[in-house]
Input
Amino acid sequence: AGADDFRMTANTLRLLSGTTLNIDSGATIANSGTATGFADLTAVADGSAGSPSIANSGDTNTGIYFPAADTVGVVAGGTEQFRFGSNPIPGGTKNLFHNGDFAVAQRGASLAGIGAGAGTYKVFDGVINTGLIGSETGRYTMSQSTTVPANTGHRQSMKVDITTADTSIAANHWYYLEMRLEAQNCSHLQYGESGAKPLTVSFWTRSTTTGDYQFMLQQPDGGRAYSTGYTISSADTWEKKTLTIPGDTGGTINNDTGIGLHLTFMLTGGSNAQGGTEDSWASVANNMFGAGQTLNLFSSTSNDWYMAGLQVEVGSVATDFAFEDIGTTLAKCHRYFNRIAAGDSDIISTVHCNHSTSYWYGAYHFPVEMRAIPTESANDDTHFSIVNAGAVTACSAVSLSGRTSTKAISWELTTASRTVGHGGTFITNNASSTLDLIAEL
Output
């Protein structure tokens, strides 16, 4: 070595910029206990999320630690952001729920009067609200709210606002919110196999009512469920909740277009919904829906409950919410529901041919392939018209012809007599017009 390649003092060997240090076979370099900033990296401590074992000297709560055997955790700001060995390598769709930011509400931003008997109600795409049994007296409004947790990036939340109280919940009555995941989007969880993967469900929530709430994950193909609780500690305060559900080696998720998983958030339930198995997989039973929940959100019309940033991801660690562009989220929603027209003078499709004096036929191609052949729902057939030769002729019937697939449909429209062979444009003619294609789970 040249005279200027290195400098040595009593306690320090310092290599200058660009210098190479060669170590002969069998040589050992170890920390004698007197040097600083030099350690044996083959035997670092496990560390923790708050104090990772490998960190920058000026940022000691950011770095790498080892939470379990064969597992590496990456930490930023004292919070684990990713875990190798449990969560999969990033890529593809991290959030299995397709509208977790509650950004898409094709049916409208609010729906009142929910809870009037057993039934299905929808506001957000992918969110189903059901009063399961009987004729409940409580009512609530679901809406897209701008009340959100601060400094999270979320711009909207889901709000449940109690509008009619139900202070005495019957034993077989309960209210809950349910989200459904398509089976082929979660069959890779390997339920029923020895390598069944865990899921982590994370979300922000707040409520005027504090106490224990219940969450249940259900797999209809296997007839099994996992029920667990979470606690809202402070009234009217956003709190982040994380629920980790182990993989079910005794379960089943078919690789098809059916329902793979139900995510059920209990609002209130009677005694028949309580007392069931918690924190382990079991055959689904009614008393698992609200197994550990005793509070009544419907006790007062002053009560409300919010959720923001729902994420369902593979692995045992909750990572930051995966925001995506609105076009991507909307395209995912269109696989299950497509409001193709709303309001007045909205063009639906063109090149409709008058097949007979009063029947028109025309095609409509979906923006994305739908989960199944859809059904059509028009709120009022007379709210639609054909524009032809300068005339607007109202429809008396709007339906699908037999030529329908998951990619396109053919309309059959009935109007007053027009000239056979003419073409026309299918439009709305009323401010309250809505025309939907539905292939929901």
